[in-house]
Structure formats: C-alpha cells, structure tokens
Amino acid sequence: MTKKLKCALIYDFDGTLAEGDCPEHGLMPALDISDTKAFWREVKRFAKADDGDEILSYMGLLAAKAANKKSEELSIENLKKHGATIPLFPGVTEWFNRINAWAHEQGLDPEHYILSSGLDGMIRGTAIGHEFRDIFACKYHYSADGKTALWPAQAINYTTKTQFLFRINKGIHNSWDNVAVNQFIEQEERAVQFRHMIYFGDGDTDIPAMKMVRYQSGFSLAVFDQKKWGNPETQNKVGKLIAEERANYVVPANYEEGSQLDVTVKGLLQLFSRKH
Questions:
Q1: Contact 139, 119 (CB under 8 A)
Q2: Any alpha helices (H) in 106-225, and if so which ranges?
Q3: Which residues are bridge partners to 151 per DSSP?
C-alpha cells in the first residue's frame, strides 16, 4: 500500500479563522477593558517606552490588569470559556472534516496547525480547538493552583513564527526543544516538506511566515474579512501583500464548500498529489 503524502495546512487565528482580535471576545470585557483601541495604543506605548516586544507587552499588560483586579480571568479554564464566544468565519467549523476527507481521496495525509499571536487557551476553547495537530500560540506560566498568570511562557510574534515552521518541517511537536530544531536533517527526511505546506494568514504579523513558505516552494494564502472589503485599509493591505510577493493567492475568509478559498486549497492539494 502506497504511503500517503503528508502535508501541512498552517493557520494564523485572529482574522484568519476567527473574526477580530482574540482577546477582545469575552476576555477584555471581563477585565473591564471597554475601549479596546485605547488598550492597543497603551500596548504600543508600553513597548516603545521600554524598547520591548509588542506581544510580550500585551501579554504583560493583560496580566497586570488581571492582577490589579485580583481576577482569575487569565486561568486556562476561563480562557477556554472566553474562547467559546469567539465568532468564526463562515464554514470554518465544517472545514476540517470536509477537507481532510477530500485530501485523503487524493492520497494525502493532511495535518492542521495553528501559528498565532493569540492566546493558546482561548483558541483551544473554540469549537475547532481539537482540530489541530499542534497549537503554537501565546501562553502563560501560572501559579501552583493554575488560576493566576505570572509571566509569559510563550510569545509568538512576527518573526518567531518562522521558527515554528521549521518545527513543523522537522516534526518537532513542542516549543521548548531547541536542540532538535537546530539539528541537521536532510531535506527529504524531514516530516513535512515546505513544498507541501499551505500557510493561511491575514496581515502584517504573517508576512515573514508567508515569505518563508513561498521561498521554500510552499504556498501562502492571504485571507480577508469580506465584510471589511469596502474599507480602504483592507484593500491596501491586500494590495501590499500581492505587490511585495508575500502571498500566492488572496481569497475571502469563507471556508464553505465551493468558495474561492475552498477551490484554491483543493487545487493546491491536487498539485501536491500530482507531483508526489
């Protein structure tokens, strides 16, 4: 029996599978953060003042606000609860079973991964949290009882996403093993070839990962919220991704059968199968 070809579908989360920014759904209201735009401006000021990383800054600021309120909203249990409130784009909940079945018919063995600056616990709490081989996202170290976020354990930013592409490429299913990720492995012996990867992203935080996958002969899809297409900012962002050769394809964030995204991904999977 011919062994099926392993391929990886790798997704950003906020703005790619789900609408908006992950923490704004449930979590921020629970921490009395009503003005989300003001919160993100504060994050930028905080990072700039200390010459720090914006992702670490937003995680630290959330933890500080929770501590000031003596709140347990950042516990894994509560993050999962808030994650359940996150609205997903059309067709996302049915996407995985359907595309897996279709890929298997093409002789492929698909794996799904999350590579996101969103909060790990919230992503796991969504209706699709169980669909992924690995979720590489931001998470905290906790107090012994697991209720208080102490400091960031994992922060995924623009460029660290590329490190996790290599972890997927080499079949390393954790964040901590730095020996394995730097170990030399012949290209054809790696778990998932870059040329058999599809990266889904929506914007600036995905640019290094999109570029890396394309450079290594894989494919990048830039997705956008169709409801925001009339916004010049959305159109400019899409135009920039095309002009700067970040994405192979640009499609609306609609995962329903017969959508542009669905047809594009199926075409790429057929390409993987044909060239196997």
A1: yes
A2: 120-124, 160-170, 178-182, 207-215
A3: 141
The amino acid at residue 162 is T
Output the furthest CA–CA distance in the chain (Å, rounded). 60
Alpha helices of 4-150 — where are they, by DSSP H? Answer: 27-30, 36-49, 54-68, 76-83, 92-105, 120-124
Each residue's pLDDT expressed in tens, for the chain with a length of 276 residues: 578 999 999 999 999 999 988 888 889 999 999 999 999 999 999 999 999 999 999 999 999 999 999 999 999 999 999 999 999 999 999 999 999 999 999 999 999 999 999 999 999 999 999 999 999 999 999 999 989 999 999 999 988 999 999 999 999 999 999 999 999 999 889 999 999 999 999 877 788 999 999 999 999 999 999 998 888 888 888 888 888 888 999 999 999 999 999 999 999 999 999 987
Contacting residues for 246 by C-beta, under 8 A, at least 6 apart: 206, 207, 210, 211, 214, 220, 222, 240
Domains delineated in the chain = 5-21+88-275 (3.40.50.1000)
Indicate whether this model's pTM tops 0.85.
Answer: yes
Rounding to the nearest 10 degrees, give the CA dihedral for residues 79, 80, 82, 87: 130
CB atoms within 10 A of CB 34: 9
Give the closest residue to 219 by CA, choosing from 165, 149, 159: 165
Q: Report how far residue 48's alpha carbon sits from residue 164's, in angstroms, rounded to the nearest whole number.
A: 26
Burial tier of 271 (Cβ tally within 10 Å: 0-12, 13-18, 19+): middle
The residues pairing with 131 across neighbouring beta strands, listed in sequence order, are none
Residue with tokens 């991964």, as numbered in its chain = 113
Per 3-state DSSP, the chain is made up of helix, strand and coil in percentages (nearest 5) of 45, 20, 35
